[in-house]
Write a structure and sequence with these properties.
This protein is α/β, with parallel strands linked by helices. The protein has two domains: 118 residues, Aldehyde Oxidoreductase, domain 3, CATH 3.90.1170; 149 residues, Aldolase class I (TIM Barrel), CATH 3.20.20. The protein is built from eleven helices and twelve strands. Helix 7 runs parallel beside helix 8. It is elongated and about 75 Å long. The chain starts with 5 loop residues before the first helix and ends with a strand.
Length: 284
């Protein structure tokens, strides 16, 4: 599984630690002796899919390089309530200073991975449909949340505006309202390996897109019945992606239409944080 780029990881963790004033922890400095050492365990309080162990560990190490971090699972593993995900050991002040930031990353990303896994598991056996994320990510944390989606078994869509050509409804409006014209313009300027995908809301627009040469089409806010008809009319000429507020209970019905992808913004914009706590014990 592709890791989060190191420079991106360190920049985001440093920003989070600065935001929390981790190096100015007044409470720990006033109540905990500088020589006190401790061990702490990251404990799953609910069932979850693990993601975020890298930034979890980095938060402690950026506060204090002497802190030892021992992951007991790997990103992508399923955990049960009571499972210990990682242990950290070092000066108690350092553990306390990094605790909140470390848990924020681990809880947030495990939440994304857990929700993604629920969507992936909702695809019926034998259906080739894959679950995609979107660009509806937390500003500054896209690489982290895309990693969490992969941990949950999902597939990443384009990473950014330079990562692919996706003609949305506002692009179509801005170039005169014609799906076919928008596709033709994109194909004329696209590189030989760049795929052009276009969003459509009706079967008529689908016909326009296919006629203009689109090889990937996003079916926006269509019912399962319309999607099934779109799959039939497309007949394999283009990859088809369902999008538009797809709920977990709808996944199986959409997947059975034979669509290639279901993209779900909720994976990253609405995932609830997983329940993980840090239990601390003093060392002799």
């Amino acid at each position: 599984m592709t890791a989060i780029p190191q420079d991106v990881l360190e920049r985001a963790v440093d920003l989070a630690l600065e935001e929390d004033a981790a190096l100015g922890d007044l409470t720990s400095r006033l109540t905990v002796d500088a020589t006190t050492r401790a061990r702490a365990s990251a404990l799953a309080k609910s069932g979850l899919v693990v993601a975020g162990l890298e930034p979890f560990a980095a938060a402690f190490r950026r506060v204090d390089p002497t802190v030892a971090v021992e992951p007991l699972v790997v990103d992508g593993d399923r955990a049960k309530p009571g499972d210990v995900l990682a242990r950290v050991e070092g000066p108690a002040r350092s553990l306390l200073a990094a605790e909140r930031v470390a848990l924020n990353f681990l809880q947030r990303l495990s939440g994304v991975a857990t929700l993604t896994r629920q969507y992936v598991d909702a695809v019926p056996a034998g259906c080739p449909t894959r679950i995609l994320d979107t660009r509806k990510t937390t500003p500054g944390l896209r690489a982290f949340e895309r990693h969490a989606v992969r941990c949950g078994g999902g597939v990443n869509h384009r990473s950014d505006l330079a990562g692919g050509i996706l003609i949305k409804d506002n692009h179509i409006a801005a170039c005169g309202g014609s799906v076919a014209e928008a596709v033709r313009r994109a194909l004329a300027g696209a590189g030989p390996t760049q795929q052009v995908e276009v969003e459509v809301a009706t079967l008529e627009q689908l016909a326009e897109a296919l006629g203009a040469g689109a090889r990937a089409v996003l079916l926006d806010n269509m019912t399962p019945a319309l999607v099934a008809e779109a799959v039939k009319r497309t007949a394999g000429r283009a990859a088809l992606e369902v999008s538009g507020g797809v709920r977990l209970e709808q996944v199986a019905e959409f997947a059975r239409t034979g669509v290639d992808f279901i993209s779900v913004g909720a994976l990253t914009h609405s995932a609830a944080a997983a329940d993980v706590s840090l239990e601390l014990e003093l060392l002799p």
